[in-house]
């Protein structure tokens, strides 16, 4: 990996994604005691940063692979990202979704031209169904985060942030499967100026925090968090990158996530999903340590069910 | 009134307001069959376009008047706008608010440095209390909309929109007391290129619609609308300007307001208040007539109680 490879990645996906705006808020600066730059991936196409990784992964496929399409299993943002990225590149996407997935999510995938294949709502059936599609259609399987091309795509949000604000002291981002934070770590290492990357993770799914402590991939026994985008287990491709390029992970309580989410909704007038509030919650929890620092926050996505809000 | 006076007004308030962004949405273009440009006054300081009019009105005061401060009665966005505009200009503001106003609104006014004077929750006591402050303090009374300087301030949002998109066919905006739409009408007359201004108004408070029909100021007997920013009666300063510079008003049902509001929240990931959804609801109601047109929509504000959402 080198600087020009990373720049190439960013340029490669540019025609297919939004260069999202960076928002500031004097009120949230005051509350946090820091100067904040929010990278608004909630305004990304399909509403989340996942569009970047999906696009990059698909663009790496050979013509022959593209002709046979791609397959993934997801009921979340990655499903929509693969469907939309495939549509904009003119290839076929097969999205394996559990039969009990919310209709609104199925409709979104259909709206982006994805072919939905329903499966039983078990992890085993998901994987088996995706495997079957790979064999039957010759489609290439795309993993939502445990894939270096996906990781490099996700990190381009941090590159855009650092291009506009090269003097950031820290970049905060959420940790779920680890795609976003691993990518952010790589780009910040090459393009930041003594900038370090800090993860925000719910106490309820703190496998990444514990993995960094123990030095081996830990798992979560339960996933009782409102941050539904962060429930996935940390990937083994992501973990060593995080060990190398992420300086620490700060854990937050569920109530802190809700407070942070509400602050951003109320003061910034933008819609973010609960997972997306986790890094800001992490900063607020330990704000004394970061007083007067310049801080970038990756706002990861805005796909939220308006009928099930926590406030 | 002439072009240079209007440009001066815009320049005068510029240091004290945000030049708000203009958002687009391919999904909402598709749904409406038009090309939309949303002027995001929900991102304005204090969360609404009212900041423009309050700032302009205060900047027109003499030094002597400024030294004695300003007074208004409002429990809505204009209260916050007068408090914040006064704070940024270093003058004293007295805000008359009913004793039963929500604590969150009182806190916002206090946060912007306004002096709150509580009154009984009747229109009579509001006016009498404001009158008393005028006499006691020598403060100048500011009306939220029935004032040409307020009207000219509000219209600067349309000027910014037309500077970036001079070829708009129509500009839609909400109608309450008439400050925003009268100002929008004036600026569009001078700076638009065969662009006309269309109002959106709830059926439940359709005094402006009926006034345009009858040619005299009509009133509302009830104000049962979710669009709480549009309940005020049309002003007699605003009405003749609207007669001259607004081509039509389209009325909408309450359910249409909620649908439009939800579409903007879900697709654009931004928070707007119910009043703010009314012009988009008006466009959707009659979208066949506007097919393929370039349309500006003034998104008036984003101050909404997240614990009382209609969905």
Overview of the molecule:
2 copies of one chain form a homodimer. By secondary structure, chain A is of the alpha/beta class. Chain A folds into 2 domains: about 5-50 and about 150-300, Rossmann fold (3-Layer(aba) Sandwich); about 50-140, Rossmann fold (3-Layer(aba) Sandwich), CATH 3.40.50.1100. The first copy, chain A, is about 45% helix and about 15% strand. Chain A contains 14 helices and 10 strands. Chain A has helices at about 5-15, 25-30, 50-60, 65-70, 75-90, 105-110, 125-135, 150-155, 155-165, 180-190, 205-215, 240-245, 255-270, 275-285, and strands at about 20-25, 35-40, 70-75, 95-100, 115-120, 140, 170-175, 195-200, 245-250, 295-300. In chain A, the strands form 2 sheets. A 6-stranded mixed sheet of chain A has the order 1-2-10-7-8-9, sandwiched between helices. In chain A, strands 5-4-3-6 form a 4-stranded parallel sheet, sandwiched between helices. In chain A, strand 7, helix 10 and strand 8 form a beta-alpha-beta unit. In chain A, helix 10 packs across helix 12 (about 240-245). The first copy, chain A, is globular and about 55 Å long. In chain A, about 55% of the residues are buried. The model of chain A has no long low-confidence stretch (mean pLDDT about 95).
In terms of topology, how is this protein built?
2 copies of one chain form a homodimer.
Chain A: H1 3-13, E1 22-23, H2 26-32, E2 35-40, H3 50-59, H4 63-68, E3 70-73, H5 77-89, E4 93-98, H6 103-111, E5 115-119, H7 123-137, E6 140-141, H8 148-154, H9 156-164, E7 170-174, H10 179-191, E8 196-202, H11 207-214, H12 238-245, E9 246-252, H13 254-268, H14 274-285, E10 294-299
Helix pairs in contact in A: 3-5, 3-8, 5-6, 8-10, 9-10, 10-12, 13-14
């Amino acid at each position: 990996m080198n600087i020009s490879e990373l720049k190439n990645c960013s340029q490669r996906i540019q025609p297919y994604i939004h260069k999202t705006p960076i928002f500031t808020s004097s009120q949230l600066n005051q509350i946090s005691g820091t100067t904040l730059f929010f990278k608004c991936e909630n305004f990304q196409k399909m509403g989340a940063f996942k569009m970047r990784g999906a696009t990059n992964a698909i663009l790496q496929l050979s013509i022959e692979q593209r002709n046979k399409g791609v397959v993934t299993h997801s009921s979340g943002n990655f499903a929509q990202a693969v469907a939309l990225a495939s549509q904009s590149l003119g290839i076929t996407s097969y999205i394996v979704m559990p039969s009990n997935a919310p209709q609104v999510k199925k409709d979104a995938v259909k709206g982006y031209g994805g072919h939905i294949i329903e499966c039983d709502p078990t992890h085993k059936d998901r994987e088996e169904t995706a495997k079957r599609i790979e064999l039957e259609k010759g489609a290439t399987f795309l993993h939502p985060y445990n894939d270096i091309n996906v990781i490099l795509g996700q990190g381009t949000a941090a590159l855009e942030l650092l291009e506009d604000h090269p003097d950031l002291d820290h970049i905060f981002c959420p940790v779920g499967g680890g795609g976003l934070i691993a990518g952010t770590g790589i780009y910040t290492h090459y393009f930041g100026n003594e900038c370090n990357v800090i993860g925000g993770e719910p106490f309820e799914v703190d496998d990444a925090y514990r993995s960094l402590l123990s030095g081996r991939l830990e798992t979560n026994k339960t996933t009782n968090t409102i941050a539904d985008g962060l429930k996935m287990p940390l990937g083994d491709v992501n973990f060593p990158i995080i060990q190398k390029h992420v300086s620490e992970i700060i854990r937050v309580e569920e109530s802190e996530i809700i407070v942070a989410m509400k602050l951003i909704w109320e003061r910034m007038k933008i819609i973010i999903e609960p997972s997306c509030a986790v890094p800001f919650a992490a900063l607020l929890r330990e704000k004394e340590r970061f007083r007067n620092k310049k801080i970038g926050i990756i706002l990861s996505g805005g796909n939220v069910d308006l009928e099930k809000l926590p406030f």
